[in-house]
Each structure stands twice: as structure tokens, then as C-alpha cells.
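Q: Is it fine to ask for two folds in a single conversation?
A: Yes, each is treated on its own. Send the first.
Q: Here.
A: Result:
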Amino acid sequence: MTLSMSQPAVADLVESFSGADPDRLGEEYLRLAGLLLDGGTATELASPAVPLLVELLRTAPADRKAHPAVLLGLLAGAEDPAGDGELATAVGREVDLYLDLWIGSANGQPLSLALAYLLSHFPEHRDRILAVAGDRGLDVYDLSKLDRALARLDLDDPVIGRVFPSPAVWALMDEAERDFDNSWIKAMPTEQIILNWDKDTSTVRGNLGAAAHWAALNGAPTPVEVGTVPPRDELPPPPDGGTELFAPHAAALRCPRCASGLDLTAAEVRCPACAAVYPVANGILNLTEDAERNAGDFLYKLAEVPSMGHFYEAYARPNFLRLAGSNWGTAISPADEDAYITEHVRPVDGPVLDLACGAGRWTQTLTEAVGADRVIALDMYPPMLTATRRRLPELPAVMAGARRLPFGDATLGAVMCWNALQAFPDDAPEAIKEIGRCLRPGGTFTFLTFHSSADPVYRHLTACHYFPGHQSGMELFELDDIKAWLAAAGLTIRHEHGPGTFVLITAERPA
């Protein structure tokens, strides 16, 4: 391959990294990565770089081996411009070296994480790799990620959508939940199963790579603090609750079809203007536009996978903050989140909305800050609403989307949206516009989300993560876009905070 004379020779780039002073090592590593990769695609420098990176991995001091291991993993998984797979083949020729180095590395340290990510790209060596992983006593969660990354799809018994934060966590599902899971997987056409399998593989490899890349630059990640999921037979039953729960907030609620006020005096919620009927069950009011047509489906969804919300809070959420927030060093802790909510949510008169409330952990912090009598929980997903109602049975919960909030103009005293905007990136501008419409003058909008990393390697690895049901990889925001959406909604930023790739903002609708 002939290299452009305007580009530095790849050997010089590798030498610049290997000889860099410690305080410039990260900078040279990122410079080298930027010249070998353009997003997820290898550049013309990638192929001649492979033997040089392998040699560097073989001979470099211990504190400089993680970097070339990550780069080799990125190249092994990169889209090959030639389309012939020669790049991955070249990286894969040295699996014996990678295994020998892995055997001698300490679990949880940068080199071990980097080699696990690199080895995750070679399913043809699955048995050898997993044998070494077992011998070294790899953490059960990390072992299950590697196992899944190296697995081949079995169309007779496909397991889909169960890789984050690790496949080992999903093994905690009971038989009924597993049967429910299999029911929707078996309904998929073969093409969709294959597509989702590939997305899951991308997700698990991206997670391994993000941890390894961060560690190469910053040192070993701190252990993640996860919670526990209570046994299914110890979960309290869904609490009762009808229209009486919503009566204190009736003046704020609106029909999602015609935006008229609602009648909450009967067992069901009705719109006098357009005659729409909205069901209430277990203290959850379905205010989706198709609620009347899908009333039976609503009741079914309330009963599905009863522990899903608890699972999300205990396992998925803390690991997601590490990935999306670059929070591998715990720059933001749950206590920090609690403190931010308590200090910055400042409601005026009117209900306080927890938009996309999830399983209610942060809804509870909100109720402690402003009083449970003021809070309405809203989410699109029945298992999350059920978990929130179990945690906070005194709260009314609304099933609705963020694009068109079922509240009147200037009716809400404050809105919180905690760790959720990134889950519906296409709808975020419209959701923020809706929040501006619904807030009373002086009311605050307090939220936590994430912006894209300035580091192109980390940005690529987070984009490898797929939310269930999403067609493209995770899209994090540009901070300037968020600020533009707030301004367009008539909101003024009052406070901003953001270590890593976190965005914590409180904005206000001016009085």
C-alpha cells in the first residue's frame, strides 16, 4: 500500500507514541488512533500499522501495552475499506501472543481489559479464549460479556436483547419472565433476529472497548456499585389506585387527542369534548392517544416482567452511567445526583412532573425534595410505572410520551427528566419545547443527560451501544444543541454542571 506523502509514515507515528513522555502518552495514543481510524472505518494507514502495533504490544513496557491492544481491537472490528477482511485476519494471526499476555495480566487493570476487548473479536478461537478466561478467574459479569461476544447465533434458540450490562445479569430472570422473553423473540422474522443479534454483539463489544479505552487513558476503573433485585415472590402486589389519585392535579391534565380538560369523576377518565376514554389501572392512567383502542393490551403490559424496573435500577442504570457519562472513575455518584435534585428543583405553584421516571429511584428523591402531594410520575413503559407505583404508592402515574405532554399550557410548577433524554434523541427537541409550554413562569426544568465525547475513539465505542428497539447506535447530544433547544423553548439556563460527558442543567421559564 502506498501512503500519501502528506501523511506521516506510520512507523513514525508508532515511534512517537512509544517514545512519548508519560504526560504526553495519552495525547500521542489518541493522535495515532485518529490517523488509523475514521469513526468505525480503518484508514489507509491501518494495514501497515498492524505489525508495528503487534511488535509494540510484544516489547513495550507494561504501562504502554494497553494502548496498542485497544488499537488492535478497534482495527479488528473496523470496517475494512477493501471489504475483504484482511485487516481483521492480520490482527487475528497473533492470538497466541494476546493470550500469553492476558494470562500474565491482573484482572480489572488496563492491560487485562484491553486484551479482553481485543480477544472478543475472534469467535473462531472461542474455546481457547474462554478456557484462559476461566483459568484466570475472570469476574462472572465480564466473563459473560466475553462469552457472548464470541458466540455464534443459534437460530433454533436465539437469545436477543439481553447483553447489557452483561448477559450474566439476565440469567437472574425467573422461568415466567424467560417464557415472556421467548414469546416476543419467536415472533420475529429471521432477518430481524439476525439484525438484532448483530446489534447485541456490537453493544457488548462496545462496552468492553469503552472500559478498556478509558482505562488505557486513566487507569483502572473503580468498581461499579450495583443493587439487588428482590425475589419475585417478595415483590409487593401492584397498589390499587383509581381516578382519585389524579383529582388533585385535574386542572393540569389534558386530553392527548384534543387538548381539552378531562373529567375524573367516574371510574374511567373521560374527555367531554371529544368523548375519548382513558383507562386507569393500579394507579396508572393511560394517556396515550391510542389508549382506548388498546385498553386490553394496556392491562397486559402492566403485568409483564414484574421485576424489570427493579432490574433496571439495580444493574442497567449504574453501568449505563459509566458508559454514557464516561463515569468509570465515579466522578458522579448516586449521592451527587440526589444532592443536585434536592438543591436545584425549585417549583412554583402547580404539579411537579417527573418525565420518563423509570423505576422511581429518582422520583423518590424528587418527592423528598418537594413533597409527594405535588409529584406526578410519567413514563411510556408499563414495567417502569409499575415499579414506581410499588415504590411510591401514594403517587399518581401517567403513561404517555414526551413529544406531546398531556398537560395544559403553563400548568406545571417544575419538571425533572433524569437520565432519559438520550433514550429518545429524535424527540428531545420537541420534548423540551413541550416542557417550556407546560411550565408556569418561574418554574424550573432540571435534567441529567449526556453529550458526545470530544474523544473520537470513545464516541465511536458509545455509538456501538444499541438501545432495545432502536435502529441506530446510541446518539448522545452536542451540548450546543441542547442549549439551543432550551432557548427555543423559552427557557433560561440557571445552573450547569458536567464532569466527563455528563450534562446536568437547571433551566427556568422566566417570570
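Q: Second one now.
A: Result:
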Amino acid sequence: MLTRAELRKGWCPGARAPMQARDGLIARLRISGACLSSETARAIAGAANRFGNGQCELTSRANLQLRGVTPERLPDLLAELDRLGLIDADAAAEAVRNVMISPLAGLCGRADVTPIGAALEAALIDATDLHSLPGKFGFLIDDGGPLSLWDEITDVRFAFDQPRGKFDIALGVDAIAIGSCAPEEIVAVALRIARAFLAVGEAMPEPPRRMTDVIFGGGLAALAAAAGRPAPQQEWAPPRPAPPAPVGLLRFGDLSCFGAAAPFGRLSANMLAAVAGAAQTHGRGEIRLTPWRAVILPGVAPQEADALAEYFHAAGFIVSPDDKRLGVAACGGAPACARGTTPTHADALALAPLAGQLFPTGLALHVSGCAKGCARPRRAPLTLVAHDGLYDLVLDGSAFDAPSSRNLSLTAARNLLHAMAST
């Protein structure tokens, strides 16, 4: 089995620094505020067809990436993205701008975090000393609204607490609490924490890639002190409902939205163009991206929900919260990824009904093309990890954890899940 260091080959792609896959370059667009106009979405769809292989992906950080770009077409793609205002001046500025905010920010949350997110992005770009942050190091700002981001993986999170009018601050996957701050303090606090992370990391035997590395490495207290924050508290575990599936008609008070999910995050350029058309015709010309690999159209008329469901279903989207595909995560696998040896999407489709029987609520199964676990870098009830055309099964763990069963064909994996569901 490959070591963690070997699995780290590659990087988080951007547009300025795309990553090579088996099907071409992957160019990731960090969409500020995870909000697109219908005109911009339509232009991106056109670029995906002209400069890539016509395939796009919604990522778990509410970004949008284009696949199959060739080196020869990359300059033209960058020129188009620059015209659309979607890329940064250089790769370093692009890489540091990892800020995720609530999908419906400014529409129905308890605090409008849109300007805060934009200010933090701008501050990170200006703070050139922070351009050495690891590529995956990220920030999250949750507005306390109905579509909570609290369970999403990040390094530094700010969650609004309405009674106090402040944002609680927590670090790492386990959300270690280090006090709170006022809304106007978020940018300064975030920069101090990031600088403390780099400073503490310099003294560690191996430079940390995520906040969790500092926590497990015993540097949390020093980091908090360097950032001027209160001493870390025990793990803060607020209620964590099953990951939402924002599909179909969504009603939040007076606001009506429609959500549609791309199966396993993959959508064609034509599907993206269909989203743009629906946003223009049935919404307010605005598209919100989510970390759940779904898009949301705000401001739709509730009486048009059935027509929208039929439209998005015909375009290839998931529109029912009962769809078993929502309970499965899968990376591109073969043939898209150089490490892939199994057709993960097809295998995930075959196993989705059985996984849904075993775990009817939330995500049940992660089908990973290798131990890197790109589609879900965290625990899942069932995780199948591919190697050499076969799968290892991990129970209640991640793609890098020790398996309970090894070297399963798809048929053997299906039979094993069937046996588990029958007991």
C-alpha cells in the first residue's frame, strides 16, 4: 500500500496551476462566495466545451472545475477566465484563497457573511507571507442559517451564534474551540491564526499540511498562544445532523429555492448551461454552489417546482432527496484518474441501493479509486478502496484506514453488502 507521502503526489489544482489527470488537465475555479450569475455559468460551460473535454465537476469546497484541458488550450482558457473575472493574478494568490461561506449567504442566514468572506479572500491575497500556507488549508464562515456548513472539513471555522452576536472559533476536523470574536474581527483573527500555524509548524519535525497535524502533533496550545486566543477547550461537538441533500423545492421562510445535485459531482458543460438557463428563466439569474455537489437556484416560484424537477431530471440531475445516489461518494476513478483501476462511478451506481438499505440516512458509501480518498477525505460507514482492479472494504473509516475485507471484486463486494443488509 502507498504511504501517505506517496499519495500526496499532486496538488490542489487551480486555473493558474492546473493538475494533470489521465483525461487531461484539471482547472479548478475558486468561485468567490460560491455564487455565479447565469451569464457567467453559461460562459464557463462554453469554455468547458471549447478548451476542455466538456466535463465539469462540483467539488466538496463548493468550487467548480473543468476537466480535459490540453496544454495547448490552456492559454486560451486562462484568457477567457480572466475576461470573466474568475482567476487571480498568479497561482500563489489563487491557492491561498480557500474560503467557504454558507451557500445562501445574504439570503436567509442570521448574519450576512458575504462581505466578510470577500474581505478575508482579499486579505489573504494581500498577505504574501501567507502564500506559503499548504494548498488544502482552508477557512469556513457559517452564518447560522438553515444549510449549515458546520460538519464540513476545514482548518479554521467561524460559526455565528445569534444570541451573543458573535462567531465561535474552532480548529481542525474535531472543532477544538478557541473562543469567539465579533463579526468585524474575523479577518484579523483568521490571519493571526494562519500566521501562528506557520510559526508553530516551523518547529515540527514534518511541516503540517492541515490544522489537524498541529493538533495531533501537540502544538495546539502553542498555536493558540501565538494567535492570542484563549487556551483550547475540549472538543466542541454541536449537533451534527446528517449531511443535507439540498435538492428539490427548498423553502426557508419567505424564500423559495430549487436544488439539483450532480451525480457524484460530475456534470457536463451542457448540464451547466441548463442550470444557467433555469436560473435565468425561473429564478433571479443567480446560482449558488454547495459543498454537497449540488446547485441551488434562489428566488423560484413554488408553483414551478414540478416543472423545475422535470427539467433538471431530464438534464441529468438528481432532484429527489430519496435518490440513493445521494448516499454515495465516488471519485473519477478509471479512466479519468491516473491512479484509478476501477470504474468507480459505475460501481457506485451498482452498489448504491444496497448501501442505502444498510444506512438509509446520510452518506452511506464511499467508493474511492485509491487510498487517497479524494471524494471524501473523512470517515464513512462503508468505504471501498480500489487497487489493481479490486476493492478493500473499510467499515466506519476513511480510505486510508485498515480494511476488514480485502481484494473484493465488484460482485464479491455486492454479495458482502447484501449479506450485511440481510442480517
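Q: Anything structural to flag on that second result?
A: Two points. The CA atoms of residues 16 and 89 lie 9 Å apart. The longest strand covers residues 380-387.
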